[in-house]
């Protein structure tokens, strides 16, 4: 394993993670998280975001050590559920730093959040505003709007947000219910690799913003959501330059917004995590197959859900790196035929690879541990260790 | 809710499940399993399978009450992992009734199974046979073969099995390692709705079987795997007629096989389960949208993973059934844009549906509870209650 600052495929090596796994045996796949890197990422993003408030998207990785690290750094939190709110509070987060950012909330969970001191809620529909007004009277709300697809690696569906022409209706309705509509939110799309890809989305939202203000709505909050990328092998802007560029575009298009929120998740934790896993079987299906099949002890149902559609190309390291390689179809250990990680674009792995060999999966601190199934095929959920 | 034997869409009503959920509030989505129906399904399948041995595919639903019910009925088990073996043993299964059917096994898990008294293992590659020979010396093995796609609703990938021309090499290799190669296994594909769809697959395997026997291999075991269907709204053969038809085809093509194994999973438990869930939000994205969005408190990451690609159409019942309906896009509660259940083919639901309404999702006893994530977005895994 290289100890230098970057390796052949351009990854920064993470000596702390490499040292931790090098000295240990793991009985099952284990995600190791370096909270020091999470803190570094927070500072790098904050340096670019300036006065904007960071609300870490807890869903990316809710390990308590990540939450407590970010509390110490001064971060706020974007919570998707009562469970995530309880987690943040249990680690010492002040309730006013937690926004309840899910637009789909049960009345009893809104009531819980209100009692716990959460003051800010997302909404995109009349019925949601009614639930908030009834269960968190007087709360601050921001309206999520749908934006047209950007250049994100995974543009979002229309699941979240209202159409632009409905924004003012919802702002008025919120006021009529006794709520305090503060502003707007949107999401540029997960893994938006370059800041310049934000320009169309920001322009769409700015038109809505200025129209609403011109109509008399006193908007003071702009929640720019997430989309801050991680490095998975394709070029991305670095975190500080990226964030500064986005904020510069925000200032150009929106002017002086009193309160900007940003919700990085993946960009905060992906490169802070490495999974130590194991080869379980290497085989060829027939004598003439060019591709081997390599089966790991981790798959789509035990942490690597984001390989669905081969969307994310995790980088894989073995102790045989440097030996001659050949193409492999990579699959997980479960008795489920869809538990295949990479098949359309096979991965190059050493020809000498065999059962028992350790593999390290890099930059997988985001959206792995919680996507893990509770016990599919009798395999336990992904083990997580924070260092 | 109808109390009659069938409802408008042709489902058998399940009075025990309906009565159980009718009298209760659930704080979160809850799968209710009637083990009496599991026992009925076992008997219905067994009546058609005759002398064939049933090994329930534990991965379909590993609830301990299902395992103990099936032990009492005389079922064997197909286990995918050490965890599933431990589960079956903990409920009182005799080890010789449990086959370790995953072709991808860690050496230490094979050793564990061997110590626990498991005598029968699946394999499809040299390296797997070597691991079995080393960690379970003298074990019985069956070789899984790849078959070409059948008429199954979800034909399998090539993840499992070896090509037909490799079977005899592997049988010879197993013998050379001191193992006892007993026979062959295959899988016709999940949710193969009609028995007649087995004919091509069975013919393929029979050719391999007879060739191997002609070459001197004393094959005594044929594992016909799973594929036994559940009813999700499209017609399927009933379990007894289906199983009897499959066995008749087996006899025609293979002759008198001393030991036939079958591994029903979905067909054993799907219709024994019903999920009680809740509408969280109903909205329209714009004034002109024809479709409403209906958000439930259960989605792809909390139990309904098999809606991926809209593969399974779960049937949904509400207390407003009978009122005027309109098309809905159905989505889950998480802050994840892929957590959409049905969008390409919207579902018809009552126009009066609103937040707080209970929905019942029928025939979802298979592949729900264990596909559930361990806590994505802070939502707990699917709750399961056995009655």
TrEMBL record, chains A, B:
Any GO MF annotation of the entry: ornithine decarboxylase activity
EC number: 4.1.1.17
UniProt-listed GO biological process terms: putrescine biosynthetic process from arginine, via ornithine
Active site: 335 (proton donor)
Pfam families: Orn_Arg_deC_N
Cofactor list: pyridoxal 5'-phosphate
Orn/DAP/Arg decarboxylase 2 N-terminal domain location: 38-270
GO cellular component, one term: cytoplasm
Enzymatic reactions: L-ornithine + H(+) = putrescine + CO2
Enzyme class per UniProt: lyase
Pathway: Amine and polyamine biosynthesis; putrescine biosynthesis via L-ornithine pathway; putrescine from L-ornithine: step 1/1
Post-translational modification N6-(pyridoxal phosphate)lysine, affected residues: 59
Entry keywords, A to Z: Lyase, Pyridoxal phosphate
Protein family: Belongs to the Orn/Lys/Arg decarboxylase class-II family.
Descriptive protein name: ornithine decarboxylase
Annotated source species: Palleronia marisminoris
């Amino acid at each position: 394993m290289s100890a230098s600052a970057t390796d052949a495929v351009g990854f920064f090596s993470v000596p702390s993670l490499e040292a931790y796994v090098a000295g240990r045996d793991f009985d099952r796949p284990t995600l190791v998280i370096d909270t020091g890197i999470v803190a570094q990422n927070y500072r790098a993003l904050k340096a670019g975001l300036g006065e904007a408030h960071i609300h870490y998207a807890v869903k990316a990785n809710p390990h308590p050590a990540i939450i407590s690290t970010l509390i110490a750094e001064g971060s706020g939190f974007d919570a998707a559920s009562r469970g995530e709110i309880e987690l943040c509070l249990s680690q010492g987060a002040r309730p006013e730093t937690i926004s309840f950012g899910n637009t789909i909330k049960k009345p009893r969970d809104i009531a819980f959040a209100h009692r716990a001191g959460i003051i800010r809620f997302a909404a995109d529909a009349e019925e949601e505003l009614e639930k908030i007004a009834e269960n968190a009277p007087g709360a601050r709300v921001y309206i999520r709007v749908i934006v047209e697809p950007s250049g994100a690696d995974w543009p979002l569906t229309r699941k979240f947000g209202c159409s632009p022409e409905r924004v003012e209706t919802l702002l008025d309705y919120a006021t009529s219910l006794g709520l305090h509509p503060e502003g707007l939110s949107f999401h540029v799309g997960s893994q938006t690799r370059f800041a310049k890809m934000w320009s169309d989305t920001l322009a769409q939202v700015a038109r809505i913003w200025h129209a609403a203000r011109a109509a008399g709505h006193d908007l003071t909050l702009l929640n720019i959501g997430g989309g801050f990328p991680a490095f998975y092998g394709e070029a991305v802007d670095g975190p500080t330059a990226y964030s500064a560029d986005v904020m510069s575009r925000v200032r150009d298009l929106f002017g002086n917004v009193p309160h900007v929120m940003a919700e990085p998740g993946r960009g905060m934790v992906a490169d802070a995590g490495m999974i130590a896993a194991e080869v379980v079987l290497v085989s060829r299906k027939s004598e003439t197959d060019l591709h081997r099949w390599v089966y790991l002890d981790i798959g789509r149902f035990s942490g690597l859900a984001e390989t669905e559609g081969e969307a994310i190309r995790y980088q894989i390291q073995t102790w045989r790196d440097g030996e001659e390689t050949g193409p492999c179809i990579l699959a997980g250990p479960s008795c489920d035929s869809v538990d295949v990680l990479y098949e359309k674009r096979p991965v190059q792995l050493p020809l000498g690879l065999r059962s028992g060999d350790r593999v390290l999966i890099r930059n997988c601190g985001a959206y792995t541990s919680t996507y893990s199934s509770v016990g599919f095929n009798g395999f336990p959920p992904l083990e997580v260790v924070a260092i």
